[in-house]
Amino acid sequence: MFLIVLFLFFVFTSVAQQYIEGCVVRVADGDTFTIVDKYRKKIRVRFFGIDCSEIGQDYAHTAKSFTSSRTLNKTVKVEVKSKDRYGRVVGVIWLDPKTDLNLLLLRAGLAWDYPSYSKSREYHKAEVEARALKVNIWSQKSPIAPWDYRKANNKKKK
């Protein structure tokens, strides 16, 4: 009986959605920032399911400004999805209960849907619509995805 209760506890706690809340104190780029939680702990957060232009790419500064104007010195809620290899929390950023910042960046043409990590139909649709409207990065003739840009730069460094 004890094992069944223990098993159910782990099943239900692993299924429960985890959220962290904190004030954004630093924006590194369009899809990464640092929050300070209620325990005064600094937590680096990477946005789930999207990828913004890297520093040095077109629209990187615009994406960072977009994120900064909506988050810096404000409290946000992060729907935690995982942690990445750098120890950052990866999550969906909620500005309020109905406003998904990850989705706003896609709609503004300032991020790519990142299908390697997310299968969100809503995110994919937002990117397709921004492309059709030729908004920001999609106004360019041949925009380079951030993951391709990183890969090319890593090869140059080696």
Summary of the model, kept short:
This is Endonuclease YncB(Thermonuclease family). It contains five helices and eight strands; from the N terminus they run αββββαβββαβαα.
List the helices and strands and how they pair.
Elements (H helix, E strand, L loop, with lengths): L1 H14 L2 E12 L2 E6 L4 E6 L2 E3 L7 H12 L3 E9 L5 E8 L2 E2 H7 L3 E3 L7 H13 L12 H12 L1
Parallel strand pairs: 3-6
Antiparallel strand pairs: 1-2, 1-5, 2-3, 4-8, 5-6, 6-7
Would you write up a description of this structure?
It contains five helices and eight strands. 37% of the residues lie in helices and 31% in strands. The chain has helices at residues 2-15, 60-71, 101-107, 121-133, 146-157; strands at residues 18-29, 32-37, 42-47, 50-52, 75-83, 89-96, 99-100, 111-113. Residues 2-15 have low confidence and may be disordered. It is of the alpha+beta class and 158 residues long. The N and C termini lie far apart (57 Å). Strands 1-2-3-6-5 form a five-stranded mixed barrel. The protein has one domain (19-152): OB fold (Dihydrolipoamide Acetyltransferase, E2P). This is Endonuclease YncB(Thermonuclease family).
